[in-house]
DNA sequence: CAATGCATAAACAATC
DNA sequence: AGATTGTTTATGCATT
């Protein structure tokens, strides 16, 4: 199915966003895989046999998940990503641009992942919240499942013991184990959902890590894929597993234990670990000897002991103190077939997870590599003109974070490179307070605003990226889009907030600017109406105001159009979560979607002097109709990040004081702004 | 370096 | 009276 996805299209060489759009377009079907139902449906039939398998597995899963999280966090810390994020375009299937097979490495991305990525790119805070909620729901489900199974397990444990006493032999146990495995698969799926979800979030984080430093593209990521801890963990598990495998099934427990005990390296004995252990990269044994050692080294931090209970899968026995826990461990979880079976199951689970993780990493890497290459290669911008970089950074921003300057890497080697320095940490707060920033729009380059907005509508709506147009242009656009070609001031406000996420904060600032522009420019004519006053546009004046400069330079236009696309909106929630994890994250204020505007319409509009407003719907419904792209292989210039990201906390502080409306971010958050235009 | 364009801030008045 | 709308001035930055 997935291959079908990638084999179905022809891709514009330049557009990462197109790729994502396309992928997203095809991702609807795979989404069904996310349904946890199968687990439930099968659980009843298997549960009787699944004594501890699930709990063991869950246990290991949680450990591995933590490990994976650690891994991903470390990846982020390495500031690798060079990925730009595509815009989410689920509402505009018409905009889907086919992806060429050549561009893709079909095996690297699963539909699920793709969809998740797509769904989570350019997330608005609301979207992310939903996702997080979903994840929480998943986790909740799992918890409930776990509890349920533990109950079942207690009963089954009794049965099992009875069976054993009654002379049941390993053979039957193996059968049980097999079924346990089957059940594990189910739970594994669920776990994978969570993991992928997490992974996606982390990817998002990766993607949001922004360029600015040409020299550090993907290598760090590739090399840093596997944190030391995880690698070690892997090694441990693998070696242990192989050790176990090498022994007869009947004696595996003994051998396994022997291996553990005899292991000289403390870190070589951990078969079961809890999240804490994995997080710390500490490995410990569950054998008595090892425990004592572990205890000495890390007092009361036994992987199998936490919150006063035994963490042995399916046990949960309450242990007053660590000593009693050790006693309990030695007495209840001594070497026997049961413990051995649990270990085996666990190892298999771990291996599966490792495989899955490896695959995911591979895919991620391939994706990033692919995107990196793609975005890099087409860049042939004749001039360093870039829309975003043309934006003026505020003084404070520049001073505060010189490295964060969104300068366009016009070199082919530095496309979407992550910024590894500069404002290393941008807090959620700072992200939200992108506040009054002085920046220059590229409006002067005459990018056809209507087509740009139309093409990137979803992007602008969700990403807090400042549209690369002047207030005057935006106001004009708002007015022209209205049926009556006239709007009240409030309607103009609403258009701004509705069309651009960016204008959902710092209302006082930009509203003032809007009013200022309306009054200042002759092209805006105030007309007294029955209900009050409306604003109209005097196109002649407007055209006077903006000399047409670049009609003849398509590449410039292209650059303009694509430039702002590579910025990724910082996901507030994501950032918050990262902040919670103390992950130094440098993110951008915007996430990009390189939706290249429809150049044809762009040029047309350009030539027409934008006199005749192009219907935005028109461009919406014609995805790949850009002749210009065909004629001129699009050169996507690696545009710099939105300067906002470069702003950094300092800028925030400096501007915050000036902004009377500084803290009114939510002014428009939930405000329905649909009165006009509809 | 000056001119220009734009963003931002703010004072102020008129109106709702 | 307070909020909104509209005008105007000032300032700073970037581009030309």
**CATH topology of the domain at 464-545, what is it called?**
Arc Repressor Mutant, subunit A
Q: What is the helix content?
A: 40-55%
- Name of the CATH class of the domain at 464-545: Mainly Alpha
Strand content: under 5%
- Total number of strands: 6
Mean pLDDT: 48
Low-confidence stretches: 1-132, 163-174, 176-184, 193-297, 374-445, 548-678
Q: What is the compact description of this entry?
A:
The protein is mainly α and 678 residues long. It is 54% helix and 3% strand. Among the domains are: 125-162 and 179-201; 464-545, Winged helix-like DNA-binding domain superfamily/Winged helix DNA-binding domain (Arc Repressor Mutant, subunit A, Orthogonal Bundle).
């Amino acid at each position: 199915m997935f291959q079908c996805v990638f084999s179905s299209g022809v891709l514009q060489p330049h557009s990462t966003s197109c790729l994502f759009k396309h992928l997203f377009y095809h991702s609807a079907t795979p989404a069904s895989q996310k349904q946890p139902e199968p687990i439930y449906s099968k659980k009843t039939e298997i549960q009787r046999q699944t004594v501890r398998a699930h709990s063991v597995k869950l246990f290991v899963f949680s450990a591995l998940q933590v490990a994976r999280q650690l891994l991903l966090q470390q990846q982020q810390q390495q500031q690798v990503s060079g990925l730009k994020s595509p815009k989410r375009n689920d509402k505009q299937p018409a905009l889907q641009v086919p992806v060429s097979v050549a561009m893709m490495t079909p095996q690297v991305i699963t539909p699920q992942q793709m969809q998740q990525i797509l769904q989570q790119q350019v997330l608005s805070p609301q979207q992310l919240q939903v996702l997080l909620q979903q994840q929480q729901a998943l986790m909740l489900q799992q918890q409930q499942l776990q509890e349920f199974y533990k109950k079942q397990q207690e009963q089954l444990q009794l049965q099992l013991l009875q069976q054993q006493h009654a002379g049941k032999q390993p053979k039957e146990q193996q059968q049980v184990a097999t079924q346990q495995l089957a059940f594990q698969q189910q739970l594994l799926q669920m776990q994978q959902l969570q993991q992928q979800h997490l992974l996606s979030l982390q990817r998002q984080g990766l993607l949001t890590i922004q360029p600015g430093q040409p020299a550090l593209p993907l290598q760090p990521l590739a090399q840093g894929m596997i944190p030391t801890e995880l690698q070690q963990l892997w090694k441990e598990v693998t070696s242990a597993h192989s050790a176990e495998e090498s022994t007869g099934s009947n004696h595996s427990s003994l051998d396994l234990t022997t291996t553990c005990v005899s292991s000289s390296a403390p870190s070589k004995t951990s078969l079961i670990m809890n999240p804490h252990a994995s997080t710390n990269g500490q490995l410990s044994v569950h054998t008595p000897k090892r425990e004592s050692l572990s205890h000495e080294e890390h007092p009361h931090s036994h992987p199998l002991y936490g919150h006063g209970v035994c963490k042995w899968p399916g046990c949960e026995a309450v242990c007053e103190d660590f000593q009693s826990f050790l006693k309990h461990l030695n007495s209840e979880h001594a070497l026997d077939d049961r413990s051995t079976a649990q270990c085996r199951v666990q190892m298999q689970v771990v291996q599966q997870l490792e495989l899955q993780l490896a695959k995911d990493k591979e895919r991620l890497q391939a994706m990033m590599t692919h995107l990196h290459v793609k975005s890099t290669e087409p860049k042939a911008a004749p001039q360093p003109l870039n829309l975003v970089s043309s934006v003026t950074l505020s003084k404070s921003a520049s001073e505060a974070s010189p490295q964060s300057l969104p300068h366009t890497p016009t070199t082919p080697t530095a496309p979407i490179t992550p910024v590894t320095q500069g404002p290393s940490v941008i807090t959620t707060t700072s992200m939200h307070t992108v506040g009054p920033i002085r920046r220059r729009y590229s409006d002067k380059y005459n990018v056809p605003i209507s087509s740009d907005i139309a093409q990137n509508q979803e992007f602008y709506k969700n990403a807090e990226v400042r549209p690369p147009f002047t207030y005057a242009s935006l106001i004009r656009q708002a007015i022209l889009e209205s049926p009556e070609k006239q709007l009240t001031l409030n309607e103009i406000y609403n258009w701004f907030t509705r069309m651009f996420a960016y204008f959902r904060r710092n209302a006082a600032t930009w509203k003032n600017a809007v009013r200022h522009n309306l009054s200042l420019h002759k092209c805006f004519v105030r007309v007294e109406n029955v209900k009050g006053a409306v604003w109209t546009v005097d196109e002649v004046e407007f055209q006077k105001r903006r000399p047409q400069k670049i009609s003849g330079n398509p590449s410039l236009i292209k650059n303009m159009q694509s430039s702002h696309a590579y910025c990724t909106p910082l996901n507030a929630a994501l950032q918050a979560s990262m902040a919670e994890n103390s992950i130094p994250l440098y993110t951008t204020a915007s996430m990009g979607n390189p939706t290249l505007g429809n150049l044809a319409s762009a040029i047309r509009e350009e030539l027409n002097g934008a006199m005749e407003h192009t219907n935005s719907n028109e461009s919406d419904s014609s995805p790949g109709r850009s002749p210009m792209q065909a004629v001129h292989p699009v050169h996507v210039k690696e545009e710099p990040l939105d300067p906002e990201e470069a702003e950094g906390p300092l800028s925030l502080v400096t501007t915050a004081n000036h902004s009377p409306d500084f803290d009114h971010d939510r002014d428009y958050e939930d405000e329905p702004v649909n009165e006009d235009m509809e």
